[in-house]
Amino acid sequence: VKESEQIISDRINLWILFHRILTINMGTTK
């Protein structure tokens, strides 16, 4: 069972979502 790959993919998805929220917040701030 490759649980590590699932964890990595979940972490990448979380990072993409977090980065998207950050860029949206910066866009609305400017």
What does this structure look like?
With 30 residues, the chain is an all-alpha fold. The chain has one domain. 90% of the residues lie in helices and 0% in strands. The chain has one helix at residues 3-29. The termini are far apart.
Compact overview of the structure:
By secondary structure, the chain is an all-alpha fold. It has one helix at 3-29.
Topology:
Blueprint: H1 3-29
Number of strands: 0
Can you write the helix and strand succession as a string? Answer: H
The backbone outline, from C-alpha atoms, is rod-shaped
Q: What is the tally of helical segments?
A: 1
Question: Low-confidence spans: pLDDT under 50, at least 5 residues?
Answer: none
Which features does this protein show?
30 residues, mainly alpha
